[in-house]
Amino acid sequence: MLETDLRRLDGELSRLLGDDAGFLETLRGSNDVRILDLACGACDEAEVLTRRIARLRGDELPETAAGIRFTGMDIRAREIGWARERFRGEGAVSYEFLEGDARRLDGHSQLPEQFDLVFMRHQNLWNGRRVWEEIYHKALEKLSPGGRLVITSYFDREHEQALAAIQAQGGKLLVTHRNPFSRELATPGKSVDRHLAVLQKT
Ligand SMILES: C[S@@+](CC[C@H](N)C(=O)[O-])C[C@H]1O[C@@H](n2cnc3c(N)ncnc32)[C@H](O)[C@@H]1O
């Protein structure tokens, strides 16, 4: 199921970002593409994201011409440990997984100033509005001028509320999309990557 979910996520990302001329220009103009995956849990999507970014640039992994630096962060040490075991850099691609609070990114001195893609899979506004508003703020702060913030959500209403909160902080919504291939979960109205949205910084 995990593999299928990731394949479907990749398909939706390919469509949404592949149509985004501004983002493609950002990627193709960079020799050092940076991806930040916030609250990533075990960061299942790490390789899907690096591969997709390479393809959008017109490269393939591991032969990609551009450096691709992936940083994943979550507050749960165990999941970050799993991610470190699973994903190892190869060629021009590097992975770094940090245990930490996404509201306190400044505490990580090794973190680049800006990222071309900030990703949050299954953002969790309903688990604590104040916390997640702060995480959205940090996500926008870390975004490069031509970069994109991509979120996915489990629920319709939570997605709408997250978009409103991100836009209230200066995020500009480019596209939001109901994933037709989203896998239904046991909780009514909840499904995997049910919605995806792409935003940029105003
Ligand atoms: C709904 S889960 C999504 C996990 C993963 N992105 C996925 O799609 O499977 C929300 C994640 O947010 C993380 N989280 C909650 N508060 C956080 C914080 N302040 N800083 C970093 N991660 C946090 C949790 O540990 C959890 O992994």
List keywords for this structure.
6 helices; alpha/beta; globular
Distance between the termini: 37 Å
* Number of structural units classed as domains: 1
Radius of gyration in whole Å, from Cα?
Answer: 16 Å
What's the CATH topology name?
Rossmann fold
**CATH homologous superfamily placement:** Vaccinia Virus protein VP39
How would you describe what is shown here?
With 202 residues, the chain is an alpha/beta fold. The protein has one domain: Rossmann fold. Helices cover 36% and strands 27% of the residues. The protein contains six helices and seven strands, in the order ααβαβαββαβαββ. It has helices at residues 2-18, 21-28, 46-57, 77-86, 129-141, 156-168; strands spanning 32-38, 67-74, 93-99, 115-120, 143-153, 171-178, 195-201. α1 (2-18) packs parallel to α3 (46-57). The N and C termini lie far apart (37 Å). The structure holds S-adenosylmethionine. The site of S-adenosylmethionine has 14 residues, from β2.
